[in-house]
Fold:
Amino acid sequence: MSNSDLNIIKNVIVSAGSNNLKLAEIFFNNSISEIKYLSDEFNWKEIDTVEKKKHFLSKHKTQNKANPKAIDGSFNLIIPGAIDSHVHFNTPGFEQREDFEHASSAAAFGGVTTIIDMPCTSLPPVNSVENFESKLHALKNKSFVDYAFWGGISGIDFENNVHIYNQINQLSEAGVVGFKAYLISGMETFTNLNLDQMSQIAKIVFKTGKLLAIHAEDKFLVESRTKHFQQENKNSWKDYCQSRDVLAEEKAIKDMIEIAKASGVKIHIVHLSSKAGLNLISEAQKSGVKITSETCPHYLYFTQNDFNNPKISNYLKTAPPVKFEEDKTALWKGISDGTLSFVVTDHAGSIPERDKSSENFWNVYGGIPGVEHRVPFLFSEGFLKGRLTLEQTINLLSKNVSSFFGLKKKGELIKDFDADFALINLWDSEIITANNMHSKGKYTPFEGVQFNATVEKTWLRGSLVAEKDKQIGNRLIGDFIAVN
Structure:
């Protein structure tokens, strides 16, 4: 196929390592056919203002040459479609809070082309091949983006005397990316494991070669404090945060490090929130323990002081809760130095009028619908504020995740890889408002915050699935990705 038969994005800049860039045009159909570089490397500082952009553009802009398939990238940054490996899109079973159509639309408008859905917020949960197939069937023609699944292991499985070994191996063969389990869970349909059970499954998961992802908060510490506070009618955000403090995360991570050492399994600590937890993981990594972690935008931006803002206090509730300034600083350092593998959202939406309105903080639903905001957040707060290089920012959103989970032909701008792109405007800004969100439940603790980067367009396997401020119809073309 000649380039004249292909789609083409002209006048875009691509990362050339560190903070360097190149002017390029990309030829593609459903995969990338060619990336043609049109300039030598230049540094971001050469065009870091709108005025410099216009000047550079006037010298380098290419002509469309009457090609009807040519798309003008307007000298914006093009990145491989972002990948969010920790989301709760809820279909089937909990669609009253969020569903795959709304959430995947939000993902597409946020520059995300692939998500990995958690097993616990489905009915039935994805803890067997039968349930896996049920979810797969329920999602047919319901996603704007590609998707993979986590498998799950619940305490209920042990109560029901399920053959855990067969269950894990069958799910692994079906193509889940790894397995999720909880040391503490508030879900009746997906309960936590005790440490003995966790040790058992770690040995089984190890033999599959896949990950064991853990919600790491110590159950005894959290539940004993919660009971004490509630008995004393202490129902504020301060009481909730105190019940799930740094020590609760630290204790759980210590336990999981020991399980990783004993079993050899690759442990992944989800949504890390504290400096103490980060330090434990860093030291364990240096000693050869197979343990990794991730964090989320809310842990990188907010602290517990923000609960004093009544406009966002309930919206900010998550488990674990955000911590303090020293934790936020440490987590930025952790993603910069590679201790943390990537930034995810833990997207968990709800209807705020129903689920986020209680004056009793224990009864407030815990979750943030963040899949739409992660990409502009990381460019704005990471790259543009000098906390990360351009290359690091893109890798945290795309390449690191695809490599980590073995997502083939995803996460990089390489010939024959999927034509998954996000076009990022680094010269524009946007005030985040709930009204502009595409999730089912429209709320965010980032309400009123300015992000100094915007997602202009998103393509999935060569098809435009989102364009800022526009309706483009039901592009429900997302496919399931099996990882084997």
Q: What stands out?
A: The domain at 3-79+418-437+448-467 is CATH 2.30.40.10 (Urease, subunit C; domain 1). DSSP finds 16 helices and 20 strands in the chain. The mean pLDDT is 96. Residues 246-263 form the longest helix (18 residues).
